[in-house]
Design brief:
37% helix, 2 domains, alpha/beta, 353 residues, 11 helices, binds 4'-deoxy-4'-aminopyridoxal-5'-phosphate, Aspartate Aminotransferase, domain 1, Aspartate Aminotransferase, domain 2, seven-stranded mixed β-sheet
């Protein structure tokens, strides 16, 4: 076999959560939206399906125009990508030479580490404080890129505008990437998209996989100042969004009523389930996302609960890693999903150890 680049030989591939095993499983392990997608988005994608003999429009203008209107920016300040994972990769592709320092926080989304390994970056993890906030007095002058999800995954922690400004100002020589995959579930005003006008080293990343219930369509969005985005656009695959993704994505972004209703239901369910879990005496980390991190006081117990839930056909996520190994991350599904989860959890907790 011909040798691949050293950094590729050394890296391991990202392992996503398990796909659904069978149709009876309540799937709460990948933070998908368990409500049906917008019927307008479905109709738009269906209609487009008859035209697949032709290449898609290269710049995804429909999606970008809809996003620009929705978020109050210009279309030149938005890029549409094949899921938000693609915009994350493009940021590495455009900014990261081998050996460059790339920062992220711990515990957080681990795909940043995979990308850093792929590009031969010097990846540095900074621990969040005990309550999962940014450490005080942060200074990252050597960072080329710094990544922070807001809300964070897997904790659900929401950072304030002031905290984000602090991070941007602590990173004078690099791009700060705020990953807003879950921001539609957070309190209004959480998004820092309005700050791209103020900081030319800020990139904001969004996805239609979570709040818009379109994980299978693969639509992500990147927001940056026009000049920076033009550089990123050079390294984008020129047909990165297929016709279905462009049609469905645009219609989904324009169906703001669907989004408001669906995210409202998920947020209400999150608060109800958080209350019920706390009444069971469990620790729940405060979350502004469509998932909650539930603590079981020890790794062995968390693993046992994970298996007990799985045996009852409820699939959640377990991370066998420092600081998170005594927790389970549970996606907030529909009320019916969460009742199944709570029943399965009660059954599991009653089993003798
Ligand atoms: N960022 C965060 C924080 C995520 O949890 C995910 C989902 N795994 C993504 C980005 C990627 O989402 P997608 O590629 O489906 O847009």
């Amino acid at each position: 076999m011909i040798k691949v680049r050293d950094c590729v030989a050394r890296m391991t591939a990202y392992v996503p959560g398990e796909a659904a095993l069978d149709s009876g499983v309540v799937k709460l392990n990948q933070n998908e939206n368990r409500y049906p997608m917008s019927s307008r988005a479905l109709a738009a994608a269906r209609k487009e399906a008859s035209g697949l003999g032709l290449y898609p429009e290269s710049s995804s203008a429909g999606v970008r125009n809809a996003a620009a209107e929705l978020y109050g920016v210009r279309p030149e300040e938005v890029m549409a990508t094949n899921g938000s994972d693609e915009i994350l990769r493009l940021l590495f592709h455009a900014y990261c030479d081998p050996g460059d320092a790339v920062f992220a926080f711990y515990p957080s989304y681990t795909y940043y580490a995979t990308l850093a390994a792929m590009y031969g970056a010097d990846y540095r993890l900074v621990d969040f404080t005990a309550d999962y906030r940014l450490p005080p007095g942060l200074k990252l002058p050597e960072a080329k890129l710094a990544f922070l999800p807001n809300p964070n995954a897997p904790t659900g922690t929401v950072f304030s505008g002031a905290e984000i400004r602090g991070l941007i100002e602590a990173t004078p020589n690099g791009v700060v990437v705020i990953d807003e995959a879950y921001a539609d579930f957070a309190p209004p005003g959480t998004s820092v998209i309005p700050l791209i006008g103020e900081y030319d080293n800020l990139a904001v990343v969004r996805t239609l996989s979570k709040s818009h219930a379109l994980a299978g369509l693969r639509v992500g969005l990147g927001f940056m100042r026009e000049a920076a985005l033009a550089e990123l656009d050079k390294v984008r695959d020129y047909y990165n969004l297929d016709r279905l993704a462009q049609a469905g994505g645009e219609a989904a972004l324009r169906d703001t009523e669907w989004l408001r209703e669906t995210t409202g239901k998920i947020v209400a369910t999150r608060e109800r389930v958080t209350g019920e879990l706390r009444r069971l005496g469990l620790e729940v980390v405060p979350s502004g996302a469509n998932f909650i991190m539930v603590g079981f006081g020890g790794a062995e117990k968390a693993r046992r609960v994970f298996s007990g839930l799985k045996a009852r056909k409820v699939l959640v996520r377990y991370f066998d890693k420092r600081r998170v190994d005594s927790f389970l991350r549970v996606t907030v599904g529909t009320d019916a999903d969460m009742d199944r989860f709570l029943d399965a959890l009660r059954g599991t907790l009653q089993e003798p150890a």
